[in-house]
Specification:
It is a single chain. Helix content is 12%, strand content 34%. The chain has two domains: 131 residues, OB fold (Dihydrolipoamide Acetyltransferase, E2P), CATH 2.40.50.140; 140 residues, Beta Barrel (OB fold (Dihydrolipoamide Acetyltransferase, E2P)), CATH 2.40.50.140. The N and C termini lie far apart (69 Å). The strands form two sheets. Strands 1, 2, 3, 4, 5, 6, 7 and 8 form an eight-stranded mixed sheet that branches. A hairpin with a 4-residue loop joins strand 13 and strand 14. The chain is mainly beta. The mean pLDDT is 93.
Length: 300
Amino acid sequence: SKLTNLGHLEMTWRSRVHFHPLLVRILHKSRLRYYGKPEKKMDMPYQAYFEVADGSGMMSMVLWNSLCPEWYHSMKVGTVLLLAKYAIKSSYPFKTHPTPGDSQMKRFATIEICLNVRDPPTEISIIPEEMVKPEWGLPEVKYRFITRSELDDLPHNHSCDVIGLVTFVGRAERARKREHSEDFWLYRWAHAIDGTSDQPFILELFATSQPDVFEHIHPMTYLVCTQMRVMTENPSRTVYLTTSNESQIFITGWHKGQPYTKDAKVKNFIQWTKSQSEADQIKKTVIGGYYPFPRPPDSF
């Protein structure tokens, strides 16, 4: 069929009602958002957004309501989509934005693609990776992996991806989203090492839309966390990483076929783990218990 691209959509969307199909690759994926309210009667008040790209640049795509339970788990980072009968709207101005792995990629920030069950009913097709042709010009997923030795030099709120061997994982804890609120965030602390420093990555992992992964993080698993934010705790200058709205977490058993397996720093980490004695590492691991962070001073 006749295709369009994201750059052409941005230039012509105001003058059109119907749009040609789009062929895009998913580069980033947000957590699933529930926006239900007691007074509003909606069957499936869900929303998730993705950053998708083709040869012309990157744009946000929003998945609405009953399409979320149907498609959210099938739409992975790296998935290629053919979209037809979608809607185009002006961008929501207060949305968070992931940091693209390719800093040269053009971002179309004024509009977003809306996938709805009606008005119009979107047609979504997932193209298997083996059928994706190079001449389509779809960008590859790129990452911003850092090692532990590089972390201390990074500025506050810098976005990065990490891989490490888990040496500690704390119990799940809750924090109120707002004061006096009945809504809570669920999170846990973890430590991971990568062999480049004596210090571990300190990771504050909030429950994303991957409960099957969040609940099974345990010592000695290979942990990948993407789109993490660097947090500097003053005055101690303690540096830790926290998840963002677009973070994805993967553990041993979930890595196969993920785009990051081709990354050079991931390959270096795997080589390092092969040189380690599993028995020695197991002796250093800890699970559960209360983890006060930041730690009180020694003279407290």
